[in-house]
Amino acid sequence: MALGRDYADQECSIARALEVVGERWTLLVVRDALYGVRRYNDFLVHLGVPRAVLANRLQSLTAEGLLDKRRYQESPPRDEYVVTERGIALWPVLRGLSTWGRENYDVLPMRIFRHADCGTELGPYGECPACGRAVHPADVEMLPGPGLDPDPADAVSRALLRPKRLLQPVATAAVTTEPSPRPTS
């Protein structure tokens, strides 16, 4: 019997949410959008996702209102994908999955998230322990953690090695596309 594509028989908001974000790659596309990745090719090289899959995920996330497709160049026509408030609302889910994965699989933190206003590292639910409140993603500064490769091959990963706020566009134009030379001993 073929696996269905929806959860029509489930009376559950989790099932409905999984119809939108439960396919492989989808939450990683949303994660990258929150990190500031906006352009198709940047998603492609950073995620290593097949082109057809990425095109499908971007189209479905746009149709569901999690991303907004915006033209940034007319000739030739080129679009970017900007995370919407509906997509931003997935930040606590992604933050929770990241924390759960790190705690349950003994993974070093790939990224450190701080409250930009006071510099305090966020708690497990995206709250600022110092300020005692939830922090909106626009007020979150992301820094590389000890689990990241300090010399990644792709321009997006290299750009994400620099501290930046969530939701701000990733600046890959100034980053070369060639991998940097590895130091010799």
Concise synopsis of the structure shown:
This protein has helices spanning 13-21, 26-35, 40-47, 51-63, 85-88, 91-104, 155-159; strands spanning 67-73, 78-83, 111-115, 127-128, 133-134, 140-144, 164-165. With 185 residues, it is α+β, with helices and mostly antiparallel strands.
Structure overview:
- Helices cover 34% and strands 16% of the residues.
- By secondary structure, the protein is α+β, with helices and mostly antiparallel strands.
- The strands form 3 sheets. The chain has a 3-stranded antiparallel beta sheet with strand order 3-6-7, with no helix packed on it. A two-stranded antiparallel ribbon has the order 1-2.
- A hairpin with a 4-residue loop joins strand 4 (127-128) and strand 5.
- 21% of the residues are buried.
Quantity of strands, as a count: 7
Structural classification: alpha+beta
What's the order of the H and E elements?
HHHHEEHHEEEEHE
How would you describe the oligomerization state of the chains in this entry? single chain
Low-confidence stretches: 174-185
Q: Between the first and last Cα atoms, what is the distance in angstroms?
A: 57 Å
Mean pLDDT: 89
Q: Percent of residues in helical segments?
A: 25-40%
- Rg over CA atoms, rounded to whole Å, is 18 Å
Give the helix tally: 7
Shape descriptor: globular
**Percentage of β-strand residues:** 15-25%
